[in-house]
Amino acid sequence: MGRHAATAERPGTTVVAATRDLVKVYGQGPAQVRALDGVSLDLHRGELTAVMGPSGSGKSTLMHCLAALDRPTSGSVVVDGVEVARLRDAALTRLRRDRIGFVFQSYNLVPTLTAAENITLPLDIAGRAVDRAWFDTVVDTIGLRDRLTHRPTELSGGQQQRVACARALVSRPAIVFADEPTGNLDSRASADVLGFLRRSVDDFGQTVVMVTHEPTAAAYADRVVFLADGRVVGELRRPTAEAVLERLLGLTEPDAGGDG
Ligand code: ADP
Predict the structure, then answer these.
(1) Measured from the CB, is residue 53 less than 6 Å from ligand 1?
(2) 51-59+88-256 has which CATH code?
(3) Rounded to an integer, what distance in angstroms lies between the CA atom of residue 137 and that of residue 133?
(4) Of all protein residues, whose CA lies closest to atom 5 belonging to ligand 1?
(5) φ and ψ at 24, to 5 degrees?
(6) Would you say 26 and 3 are in contact if contact means Cβ atoms under 8 Å apart?
(7) How many CB atoms neighbour CB 254 within 10 A?
(8) 77-105 pLDDT, tens per residue?
(9) Domain limits of the chain?
């Protein structure tokens, strides 16, 4: 293959989500774009993984396929032991609702609901009981105790994103996908949100995958996976912001992105 296949099993780790030879093609004929061109990737339980790469390298497409928001053209996506590609729509909806947490760049809170109501909304929609002790743990860890009755417009961007993080965690999902979670935040609020995602991994054993453009954000991760042209082209463990930046610069140089 001559490419990095980031699938090596490490001792003592459980794979929560995995792709094999994942291909996603958009469009037809000459207008066709291979957004993902054979991605094989294992995501391990209790790790924070950052996905990075130049614009157009396939990060969003990979997240959407992993999070069962989009269907692959070919290849396999397994999340929490379930082959996503084979699921019918109703089962896909259940998987997303029950086993996956989402954090988006734009928070996606419901403006008419309080912070507390936003946090429990997915459980309420699913008709699932809220585990109050767990709710309290999440809310206290993320520092939202005194904001629970506020509506989104009464909260700063950073507070809104912390509500979104709490909402993602309160259902105890197998995996949380965060798409540019700090893209709209200043550095202080970013540090709060990233610190919380980090703690959710360290203290609660949560599995988190995050797309980011920012080396300082990626430095919170246990592992950074680099994409270019729809392929995995490398990874870093225990990344520093400097090492991430260096690797990214290599990917965007004109001669980079080949197999060599
Ligand atoms: P990234 O998130 O790394 O910027 P994307 O996954 O958004 O990359 O896009 C990968 C490639 O697929 C790009 O060339 C993009 O233009 C293309 N693409 C993404 N979504 C669509 C779509 N819905 N229709 C057509 N092309 C798309």
Answers:
(1) yes
(2) 3.40.50.300
(3) 6
(4) 58
(5) -130, 120
(6) no
(7) 5
(8) 999 999 998 899 999 999 998 999 999 99
(9) 51-59+88-256
